[in-house]
Amino acid sequence: MSDHDETKHGLRDRVVGTWRHAVDSAKDSVGDLINSVDADLLYDTGADIADTKAPKVDIAQRWDERKFSAKLVNPANRRKLSVIIVGTGLAGASAAATLGEAGYHVTSFCYQDSPRRAHSIAAQGGINAAKNYRNDGDSVYRLFYDTVKGGDFRSRESNVYRLAQVSTNIIDQCVAQGVPFAREYGGLLDNRSFGGVQVSRTFYARGQTGQQLLLGAYQALERQIAAGTVTMHTRHEMLELVVVDGKARGIVVRNMVTGEIETHTADVVVLASGGYSNVFYLSTNAMGCNVTATWRAHRKGAHFANPCYTQIHPTCIPVSGDYQSKLTLMSESLRNDGRIWVPMSGEDKRDPREIPEAERDYYLERAYPAFGNLVPRDIASRAAKNVCDEGRGVGPGGLGVYLDFADAIERLGRKSVEAKYGNLFDMYAQITGENPYETPMRIYPAVHYTMGGLWVDYDLQSSIPGLFVTGEANFSDHGANRLGASALMQGLADGYFVLPNTINDYLAAGPFPKVDPADPAVAEAVGLVKGRIDKLLSIKGSRTVDSFHKELGHIMWDYCGMERSEEGLRKAISLIRELKTAFWSDVRVLGTGEGLNQALERAGRVADFIELGELMCIDALHRRESCGGHFRAESQTEDGEALRHDDEYAYVAAWEFAGEDRRPVLHKEPLVYEYVELKQRSYK
Ligand SMILES: Cc1cc2nc3c(=O)[nH]c(=O)nc-3n(C[C@H](O)[C@H](O)[C@H](O)COP(=O)(O)OP(=O)(O)OC[C@H]3O[C@@H](n4cnc5c(N)ncnc54)[C@H](O)[C@@H]3O)c2cc1C
């Protein structure tokens, strides 16, 4: 590994100058629209916050120590305690199965018609674990180090170390469940590499790893459903959180088939509701993914952390037209064997197979010789954008680069490439009509994952007591950039191993007094849901929900996407505020609230995306540094890499909702690095 020790200080002076210049010229050049948004008046600053749950012992002992110090609940008492879990993806299904098996009364919710249709099923490439089966120098510490560095030093050390420790248990658990991981000839589990690392630690089941892992978790969940410890509510959407005496005690859901509004209460609530990439309209996420569960909790007091940290994945099938509503990922695993290139000259329009080696630019291999095509996603995405901005992109509109398997097919043979990646190649052929065994794939970056989410402490408890958050819905482990194959690891770590050990500590004080259905907090939450539905149905405007979503997506992609700037973000905030006003006065939602109404479902989600979009831009504006997936045009090294400002921004930005039409309040959780040295990240 060749980490350059180029420290920020020399560069910093140069960049502050560039920054000031950029801000001044923004002031001169932009019109009233942008000037109406004064960056410093967008939020208030509250008291710093800290995680108080991670024990103050050596990092390698912290998780054992916490498991020991956390209070236990004896098996007889578990039967008296109830848990609501929203979400049946890897994070939610694993938690429900484990807590059900432990004897708690679990009630699970998802909006799909089956728990196994959760978005997790789409995950392709693999799941990381520090097993060191390849004997290539891997270890718990290396996985921890790679993840902290990959996240551009913006994650919490304690949580990441625990994730690396627990990663090894996940594989054992899944193998025991019968998950069909790929195996080598001798029968041992196979591994491949993902971006940002130099070892092979990614376990996989062809290009269907998420599906196989979810089937494992789903079977465990179904077993508990059959045993009566888990009650499953499919086609139910959580629309509000019920907070009684400061504690999360339930949720209000809409039965998506009958339209009935129901209240469910419990001793504790867990949100495992996934990420919010669809705020960008076009993303690789399942169409249904949304922010409503976490956003509603945020409005009830849960801090939202680092909302601007989004991941743009470098290897997606390029957008092909304006009618498109979904993007398709080509798994990062393809970068193990595929080589990424563009023609040396933007004028070169020949069939790629006719372009000789000397006239190709394998730009990742050239610029990052140590990691080559396996640099982390944020770096690979920006590099693709840069070559396309230079006019060297390929395909329609010049927004594409080649991912070429010709060398791999020659070296390994077509059969072996087919065995590893066959279903991905088939998918590409079906969508594009091109045969990737014969001509290079065309790929371009697309929104894929959100590192931000509800703030949680080491116990995965949010700032609302009794509200726990797991999987992609929380912010906890990936800093400003997630490494490939680490989301599945985190979801299952949270659900199978972390939450079941920490939630006891909270539940040991229970059972809490039963929530009275007439409690004002319940009435308020139900009233909010019904009022919103009535409002959405009563506007009867002229624009479809999708037209608002699409417009929001354009704003977010243009100004809060792969590159962000002071001027662009200020403009985006103005535009989003205008969009919000237009939405609430001109949206047209057909049908009624009684029964299946997909336009109504989408309207509620888009309304929340609009509010989230504004907070994302405020977060991105206030963070006047580049880190990981958050690339501020004004803050870059001479080589065009992300330039952090650790002296000012080495903190988690946890945002508090202060009320309707009030400014959000920023709480900082300072990040302390005791086990990894803060450095300018380099993959050269
Ligand atoms: C195409 C693609 C490929 C990927 N490949 C990989 C990979 O190879 N390796 C890797 O590590 N990561 C991968 N990821 C990322 C990974 O799949 C996700 O981060 C992870 O699956 C999220 O799991 P989760 O359990 O947190 O949420 P999800 O799987 O998104 O589940 C969310 C659940 O919450 C429910 N829900 C949400 N809101 C509500 C509500 N309001 N009311 C009721 N229920 C609700 C949903 O019904 C669903 O059951 C990939 C992502 C994509 C998009």
Question: Layout of helices and strands, plus pairs?
Answer:
Elements: H1 8-29, H2 32-35, E1 44-45, H3 59-69, H4 75-78, E2 82-86, H5 90-102, E3 105-109, E4 127-128, H6 140-150, H7 157-177, E5 202-203, H8 209-227, E6 230-233, E7 236-244, E8 247-255, E9 261-265, E10 268-271, H9 292-299, E11 304-305, E12 310-316, E13 339-343, E14 360-361, H10 363-367, H11 377-389, E15 401-404, H12 406-412, H13 414-432, E16 441-450, E17 453-454, E18 467-469, H14 487-507, H15 520-539, H16 545-560, H17 566-586, H18 598-622, H19 646-649, E19 651-656, E20 665-670
Parallel strand pairs: 1-20, 2-3, 2-10, 3-6, 10-18
Antiparallel strand pairs: 4-5, 7-8, 8-9, 11-17, 11-19, 12-16, 13-14, 13-15, 15-16, 19-20
The structure holds flavin-adenine dinucleotide.
Flavin-adenine dinucleotide is lined by residues 86-92, 109-112, 118-120, 122-127, 209-210, 237-238, 272-275, 284-285, 289, 292-293, 329, 448-449, 471-473, 485-488, 491.
